[in-house]
Amino acid sequence: MTVGNMESAQLFDAGNKGRGLRATKELRAGEVVFAEPSFSAVVFDSLATQVCHSCFRRQAKLHRCAQCNFAHYCDRTCQTACWDEHKQECAAIKKMGKWPGENVRLAARTLWRIHKDTGIVSDSQLVSVDHLEDHVADLPEGDLKQLKADVHTFLEYCSYGRKQPSVDDVSHILGIIKCNGVTLSDQRGLQAVGVGLFPNLGLVNHDCWPNCSVILNHGNQSAVSSALHSQRRIELRAAGHISEGEELTVSYVDFLNLSTGRQKKLQERFHFQCSCEQCSEHVKDDLMTAAAESEGNKPSADKVKEATAFSKECVEKIERLRAEKDYHEVVRLCRDCLEKQENVLADTHLYVLRVLSVASEVLSYLQSFSEAAGYARRMVEGYMKLYNPNNAQLGLAIMRAGVAHWHAGQIEVGHGFICRAVAILMVTHGPNHPITRDLESMRMQTEMELKMFKQKECVYNATRDAALMKQPMISSF
């Protein structure tokens, strides 16, 4: 599968959902439906000095552009590769004396490329980037106010040289970014570092239980033609068996939310009412709000209500303290919250899972691996009852549980989790993704350690048995 190959997907009329893509052949789990380089992309403002603006790798020491003092690169190679994208941005920042937010910078890069190359840059691109949906007419008053402010900033930013685009053109591109912008990750796929536009991916419709997953893959570039070479490329992968003619879908939001919560998020950002089976039939909502049950006994409704309210308030505090990097206080609050939830809320309850996730991650960071492993194991057990078996978030959660158990000295359990994570990420990320390769290395390491441990155990048991055989027997008479 090479970047730009769209032989496995075709555009079609998806009825009330508008345009969509469907499979042109039968697809197996893990098969790449298509790969696509970004049309345009930028690094987040908050990470502008920590992430290379060309390859989006997070690095400790980056070289700054001497002209604008804004863009940062790994080395001269990355800077040269990015110059065609950056040269107009560089001049605009020097002229303005400051740099605007990522949405304005992405809109500028998009319009500059449309002016240079038009909105279609390859034969495999199914739609011009400026023909994607913008939903500007559907924006609420607050979002419209922000849009107008961004348009004003854009016109100030690009107030030199060639003829300026109209207010409507700028509003249209900013609307497209709001509805179609894809979060870009770093080289290992673990941290969001930027945002980009992918025209073909923008045609794939949403489903809360999708048959595809989308992943940024900065790994194996050997199959990429020089004309379409890009470090910033996505892969759309089949999450399971897909029949010929079946619509291809991805999830725009995390499934781990109540159906009403997912619908609210989809309406606010993407301006449609989700009517998928999971939302229409409120699938798994009961598990996400479930009370604990022991030997047929359940807590009272008042206790459940009290624990839920406490958990909601606690989760908000935990997230705030986590952002402030007050990790020891985060751990204390997590413990308090989990104690309050015990025997009241089930381990599939949303608030329990959110606290378990933060607790396991922060404790691992603090190297309290034994406690982290216990929380991670409970989290995975809950996730497995809620997520699709080939969901990337599930795979990453199982990976975290495996690493925590491994570092806690529980090699056999850790190895089991890591093997399960490898099986999922081979489908969602593929064998050439850096995180899959890292995980495979961990699998081999834990397998080797497990064999050594069992060999030592066998030697110990044999020595012990031999020593016992040599001891004189004591008569019972």
**Overall pLDDT metric:** 90
How would you characterize the largest beta sheet? 3 strands, antiparallel
What is the rounded distance between the termini? Answer: 79 Å
What is the helix content? 40-55%
Class from secondary-structure proportions? mainly alpha
Quaternary structure classification: single chain
What general outline do the C-alpha atoms trace?
A: globular
Count of DSSP H/I helices? 14
Helix and strand pattern: EEEEEEHHHHEEEEEEHHHHHHHHHH
- Which sequence of strands runs across the widest sheet? 3-11-10
| Stretches with pLDDT under 50, minimum 5 residues | 219-229, 473-477
Query: If you compute it from the alpha carbons, what radius of gyration comes out, rounded to the nearest whole angstrom?
Result: 26 Å
Portion in beta strands: 5-15%
Count of DSSP strands: 12
Which helices and strands occur, and which strands form pairs?
Elements: E1 9-13, E2 19-23, E3 32-37, E4 40-43, E5 63-64, E6 72-73, H1 76-96, H2 102-117, H3 141-157, H4 167-180, E7 182-185, E8 192-197, E9 205-206, E10 212-216, E11 233-238, E12 249-250, H5 259-270, H6 277-280, H7 285-288, H8 301-323, H9 327-341, H10 350-365, H11 369-386, H12 392-407, H13 411-428, H14 434-470
Parallel strand pairs: 9-12
Antiparallel strand pairs: 1-2, 3-11, 4-8, 5-6, 7-8, 10-11
